[in-house]
Design goal:
Elements lengths: L2 H25 L3 H6 L6 H12 L2 H14 L5 H23 L5 H9 L2 H34 L3 H52 L17 E5 L3 E5 L3 E9 L2 E10 L2 E5 L3 E5 L7 E2 L23 H15 L4 H7 L5 H19 L2 H11 L3 H4 L5 H9 L2 H37 L6 H19 L7 H25 L5 H23 L6 H8 L2 H18 L8 H9 L9
Antiparallel strand pairs: 1-6, 2-5, 2-7, 3-4, 3-6
Helix pairs in contact: 1-7, 1-8, 1-15, 3-8, 3-10, 3-11, 4-12, 4-15, 4-17, 5-9, 5-11, 5-17, 6-7, 6-17, 7-8, 7-15, 7-16, 7-17, 7-18, 8-12, 8-15, 8-16, 9-17, 9-20, 10-15, 12-14, 14-15, 15-16, 17-18, 17-20, 18-19, 18-20
């Protein structure tokens, strides 16, 4: 990728974000403006904003990278991401808007009349927000490293600075305009380049990727490894090496990698000829067996693929309704009917976006399989324009894609920072209105930025899947039962949040820390939704039944407010 063009594209997006954020500063005055845009956002604008913040780095970069590595199995990600809004539409959107809350902890306290439930919900909101921010900052670091060669952590710091400034300046009203603009930028950044990529693919006689064998390089490729890697070669391949292989130093000379395992040293450059099969790292990145889309009982992915598939489906399908940065947007609609209309429009917008992303994954398998060797599969979307189109046109398309990637992590990071800052400002810092909301934006983004410098190996989409698992295990039971069951009690809600959400958060933390790398223990920790979601629901129901005398006295009035339609606005 041409660095000058890429830097120009990213800079343009950052400047546009700052300018739109400055507009919000001029029109945001009250606390309600900062938290929920005074509940005046029209359905269409709100749908653009919801889509803008929901389509994160995991959607823009991560899904294509996973399709490149693992084939059609990974289409469960975009299917789950989109289908989750069906549940949100049917069960949550309108009643949640009618609750009159600012945040999920607000809703928990209003429904259950308990400060303890509010505090636990606040802890989980912050935990989910920080967990979701990690892959956004990783995506920022990956993009900046490809564009400038700067360390990966520097991209996270840049995004943290821009996001904290935009959120602190204008709050929800400002971020609404920013995210609506960024949705259309992201859609354009995928739609325009993919048209040229498909034309180049057709001009190359439309090759078909091989999913049941090691990927083949259709063109010569140069791969630079920034860390030592052990690879397995299935058939001899002749390469040009500058660096260290199996303890032997080679200075730009030819070398044949024989069948078997080889240790490639740090800062080693390998040049592969066209037609070479890509050797894959021993850590299993880039499964090469045929796709198990229609065969979930096959044992070629993580050893327990049926369990993993259902864990992914449950997490993405049920986790959407509990994502704090998504849910808070429904508080900005004028009424429950507008919230439902927003959700319907969002379904169409997400569907249009996710039609494009898998194409990049398939083309990446053909023209960028060397990313499997480096582990940078998330970069497939960024490198394809230069590899297929090339020249000034490829540079311009690459700049557009880089700008779209920048918009992806900026928009989602803005929404997450806003939701976490709202909880910190209300429940941690002394309540001093807008002033402390602005102060809360600093820790809201600083903590995951610091953690991102330590955790860098987890693929972007996988990290987001873990955040969805925690959300599905905690706020999904709280919202479904809180909205539709009068018998939910504060002890029941606490038990469900602690046992469901707490256990999922513990499993996710252990996965990120590398506590278990294989076997059933790894599978249970990496895909906790299969067991943690039922635990959350069961704990809430059983504990509430055991504490029937603790049903809040105002439950009848609260349930009426959640389900009765709002009166029509007065005629003028």
């Amino acid at each position: 990728m041409n660095r000058t063009y890429g830097i120009a594209g990213v800079t343009a997006v950052v400047l546009a974000t700052v300018l739109v954020g400055a507009l919000g500063l001029r029109i945001s005055r009250t606390t309600s403006d900062f938290y929920v845009a005074s509940r005046t956002v029209a359905p269409r604008l709100n749908a653009f904003a919801v889509s803008g913040e929901y389509l994160s780095a995991a959607s823009f970069l991560g899904v294509a990278g996973l399709v490149l590595a693992q084939g059609a199995d990974m289409l469960w990600f975009p299917i789950g991401y989109t289908a989750g809004f069906l549940v949100l539409l049917a069960f949550v959107a309108a009643p949640l808007r009618r609750s009159g809350a600012y945040t999920l902890p607000d809703f928990a306290e209003a429904r259950l009349e308990s400060r303890a439930v509010r505090r636990i919900a606040g802890v989980l909101v912050v935990g989910i927000g920080w967990l979701y921010l990690l892959p956004q900052l990783r995506g920022a670091g990956l993009t900046l490293r490809l564009l400038t060669g700067a360390p990966g952590w520097s991209g996270g710091l840049v995004v943290a600075a821009v996001v904290s400034g935009a959120v602190a300046a204008g709050g929800m009203r400002s971020i609404t305009f920013v995210q609506a603009f960024q949705y259309w930028l992201k859609l354009t950044a995928l739609l325009v380049p993919v048209a040229f990529l498909l034309l180049a693919w057709r001009a190359d006689r439309a090759p078909v990727p091989a999913w049941d064998d090691r990927p083949v390089l259709h063109r010569p490729a140069e791969v630079r490894l920034d860390r030592p890697v052990t690879v397995t070669v299935r058939e001899p391949v002749r390469v040009t090496v500058s660096g260290s292989v199996d303890g032997r130093t080679v200075h730009g000379g030819p070398l044949t990698l024989a069948e078997g395992r080889h240790r490639i040293g740090t800062h080693t450059t390998l040049r592969f000829p066209a037609g070479a099969r890509v050797p894959l790292p021993d850590r299993g990145l880039g499964r090469t067996a045929s796709s198990s889309w229609a065969r979930p009982l096959s044992s070629d992915r993580e050893q327990h693929s049926l369990y993993a598939t259902y864990g992914l489906i449950l997490a993405t399908f049920l986790g959407t309704m509990g994502l704090p940065h998504v849910v808070v947007r429904f508080y900005t609609n004028p009424d429950g009917r507008a919230a439902r209309r927003t959700t319907v429009i969002v379904l169409g917008l997400l569907g249009a976006f996710y039609l494009l992303v898998p194409l990049y994954g398939v083309l990446g398998r053909l023209y960028a399989p060397d990313l499997l060797l480096t582990g940078d599969t998330d970069a497939a979307v960024l490198v394809l324009p230069q590899r297929l189109v090339g020249g000034p046109a490829g540079d311009l398309l690459g700049a557009l894609v880089a700008g779209g990637a920048c918009a992806a992590f900026l928009s989602t990071a803005s929404g997450l920072t806003l939701s976490v800052a709202g909880v910190l400002a209300q429940d941690v810092l002394p309540t001093l209105g807008v002033r402390h909301f602005r102060l809360a934006t600093l820790p809201a983004v600083a903590v995951p930025a610091a953690a991102g410098a330590v955790v860098g190996e987890l693929p972007v989409a996988d990290a987001v899947g873990l955040a969805f698992a925690v959300s599905a295990s905690s706020f999904c039971p709280l919202l479904i039962l809180g909205i539709w069951w009068r018998g939910l009690t504060p002890p029941g809600a606490i038990a469900g949040l602690v046992l469901g959400g707490g256990s999922a958060l513990t499993a996710v933390t252990a996965t990120i820390a590398g506590g278990a790398r294989s076997g059933w223990l790894h599978t249970l920790l990496a895909w906790p939704a299969v067991w943690s979601v039922p635990v959350g629901f069961a704990a809430m129901v059983l504990t509430s039944l055991a504490t029937r005398d603790r049903v809040p006295p105002g439950t009848a009035a609260t349930m009426a407010r959640l389900h009765l339609p709002e009166p029509p606005p007065p005629r003028t």
